């Protein structure tokens, strides 16, 4: 008998798409076997039940045996030995098709019992295990989804324990069910042959017993053939028993060895991280955006193939290209409050993917593997050895300051010197340097013993807070959303220019010069070299807002302003000469490492092919700010002229009013000096109230004149 195709029980825990695809082939084969055996069972049932139609039923059996080689079995379809054996049986059965009237008792024991047992016990067992496995697989997927949705910021030990226990239970159940299901499918390949051959053997033996007296029809050659078939059946049974025993032992060993692997996030002390890998495969959750703010996460099987990252859905025969990861960038990110997320960005910045690993170990191994592939280490003869050598060199190299707190510790007068390796190493060089940079000394561009800062914590914030306290405004709290309590608009809202760019902060370091673009190029080289040496992949993504007053780094999720760079303090900005995604600017601030009051810090960012556009935007903002300042000064001068004219006009109006008052007083005085004449009838002239008031005013005027 030829070899039997088997499902790999050892790969049940990994549950890869290839294993599922192979399982689908075995399930199709089981369905085909079930269909064929049902037909054969019906044919033999007709032999047993319908004695009057026994001849026709025997003929149908012979016909089905002849058509065995035409059946499209996914497994074992080219079994020539089985086909030839069945062909021989069909010939003999066809010759004896008219002699089965009295065989009901023998057929019930020798023919119907084996095939009925196979149909009712073995095939139903396969169907039951299939249903149980499907339920266990669905439960495991649901548990994994719940575990993937665990909050990173609001961890609840009770919820985490329940979810982890659920994943452990469901994974163990799926693994055990899958192993037994694979064992049953593998055993089915043996039972298929036994179920095909044993009933036929019993049938022929019943025929021989029935036609004992007609043995002239059964020659020695046929008896030898039947003997060989019986021996083959026994051999297949012994092979099946041996294989079943081996598979059962394998299942027991795998259950014991795989128990720690059921936990989704294993203990890193027991399962250390392998940082020298150049190939990796496993399940990841991929983020797919479905709208402006909504997204879905799909769990797929990912594996690396050369310089490509491949993805494969469960049930697919082969994987498809997900992304070209040659010269790509990879970093850990925070995304939708999910743990163990990382982002892969292609070399041209046009395509990026956010993936979520299942555990911290997988998270770090995926980042290290993709970073090794990005360096094209896989093209060498011994990629893992070269990756280990690179990582060992990184461990031996100097570790630059990864935070601003360590940077301030380095500024303390403790006499500690910074190793120069972080500045002089060229393993992470950006490429060809300019000829002007080669002619300059590094110490003339970058301050000696300068630490590198990789996170967004700027001394600008501390200087501003210190100035605010010095001016008596330290108690006022800044609204991060740009809204003031008095209802007035902020300077940013009044700015003419508003341009927003997506940038990723690479690092910053203090420089000695701020009048040469080579300072920016040299800072880029040193920061990227330090990142490459020390495998620093994490980059903080922000929104860079360019206005006429300042540059702002804004958190893309909370919209809180992380840093503010006053535009007048930005004295130099430039884009990398070859990689247009890289740009940087030099900020002149007060204080620093030197003894002088002013210091210059160079900030380096990565954008999505918008480096030149950002620099042009900063230049436009400075031009607009310059013109706005000139316009403001001209407006203030014009307002001063208008104020002088208005003052002169007021003085002239006041003088005219004084002259008018004097003229009115003179008229009233003249009117009051005339004598009051009485009429001939003794009547008097009655003055009006206005005239009396004028006369009073005239008298008062006379008194003032007399006093004067």
Walkthrough of the structure:
The chain is 51% helix and 15% strand. With 708 residues, the chain is of the alpha+beta class. It is elongated and about 175 Å long. Residues 501-637 form the PID domain.
Name given to the CATH architecture of the domain at 9-71 and 78-217 = Up-down Bundle
Q: Could you name the ranges where pLDDT drops below 50 across 5 or more consecutive residues?
A: 397-441, 458-493, 677-695
- Indicate the percent of residues in helices: 40-55%
Mean pLDDT, to the nearest integer, reads: 77
The main β sheet shows up as: 7 strands, antiparallel
Tell me the Rg in angstroms. Answer: 47 Å
The strand line-up of the biggest sheet is 4-3-2-1-7-6-5
Could you say what the CATH topology of the domain at 9-71 and 78-217 is called? Substrate Binding Domain Of Dnak, Chain:A, Domain 2
Secondary structure tally: strands: 14
What's the CATH C level of the domain at 9-71 and 78-217?
Mainly Alpha
CATH superfamily of the domain at 9-71 and 78-217: Arfaptin homology (AH) domain/BAR domain
Structural class designation: alpha+beta
Output the number of helix runs. 17
Shape: elongated
Percentage beta strand: 5-15%
Distance between the termini: 148 Å
Biased composition (Basic and acidic residues): 645-666, 699-708
Main location: other
GO molecular function, one term: protein kinase B binding
Region (Disordered): 397-433, 465-491, 645-708
